[in-house]
Specification:
This protein has 69 residues and is mainly alpha-helical. The chain has one domain. Helix content is 83%, strand content 0%. The protein is built from two helices and no strands. Helix 1 runs antiparallel to helix 2. The relative contact order is 0.11.
Length: 69
Amino acid sequence: MHWKKYLILLPPFILIVVLLEIYLPSGVTQYAIGIVLLFWAVYYTWIYVEKKRKKDNHDKSISEGIKNK
């Protein structure tokens, strides 16, 4: 688990969920759970993008190394 990313994302999402639970009308407070799903989507997207960038940079450095030989 990427604890740093998790801890960066968690406080704003918790705040949003609490505010929605407080301010949404009582009949629609269950929709605040969608924010939890959004949290996990953002978290895993961030991890995916970071891994892809590392792989692309690694592949790019390897191909540049081959060109320089």
